[in-house]
Amino acid sequence: MSGLPDLESARAARLACREGAPRPTSGMAPGFTQCNMISLPKDWAWDFLLYAQRNPKPCPVLDVTDPGSHRTVLAPEADLRTDIPLYRIWRDGELVQETPDATAAWAEHPDLVTFLIGCSFTFETPLQQAGIEVRHITQGCNVPMYLTDRDCRPAGRLHGKMVVSMRPIPAGRVAEAAMISGRTPAVHGAPVHIGLPEGLGIADLSRPDFGDPVEIRAGEVPVFWACGVTPQAALMASKPPFAITHAPGHMFITDVPDTHWQV
């Protein structure tokens, strides 16, 4: 087990998420897997499971809870209602609240099924270890995320567009960044697009749909990865009656080392 990150750092990071002011989790608990989250009433769970199966690049499922459970095998001591720094509450496809504690909202639907979805933050540590800067970590802000013009494959009552995250990479290291991220397909894997944002229907990189803009320097190329905020785009398009999600960039930190997902 030598060489694995210290589990106490993951637990301390979750404690900070629960008790501190909400902040994006990129760069927290390096070496541990982070997850996107979506919780839906049981009668929508099959639709979403099928949606994720049909769209594995943006929606790679790492765990699914039993109805009503707020526990996950990915971090058995954690509480999914409180251990994410910021939650979103959705009603009929509309974002109605952001809160650091989803306990009250969770109690409204005792049959909620929660999906934990891989996050590209998981491969940021190997990028940094290879000497590739992750700009939003350097700038101390949230990763920029964009709604694209690419349709996800619909499933049941769910449909929507794919969301991507973007990181500027020096042109000479793009292939290396793609190779490093490609080793972890369970957390989005290799990029879905490299270069001109117009190829994804993105008009202006300085105006992300979620997160914060970052500096793109001369000689750098925008590189786009599928993003686990894609389920939130499906909520907006499909309008289920109720859902709880993480706020973009504010992830659930697990006890599972990043290396667990490498192939």
Automatic annotation (TrEMBL):
InterPro entries: D-Glu_cyclase, Putative_hydro-lyase, UPF0317. Its EC number is 4.2.1.-. It is an enzyme of class 4 (lyase). This is Putative hydro-lyase JWJ88_19845. The keyword Lyase applies. Pfam families: D-Glu_cyclase. Gene3D superfamilies: PSTPO5379-like, PSTPO5379-like domain. The lineage of its organism: Bacteria, Pseudomonadati, Pseudomonadota, Alphaproteobacteria, Rhodobacterales. Belongs to the D-glutamate cyclase family. Keywords: Lyase. NCBIfam families: PRK05463.1.
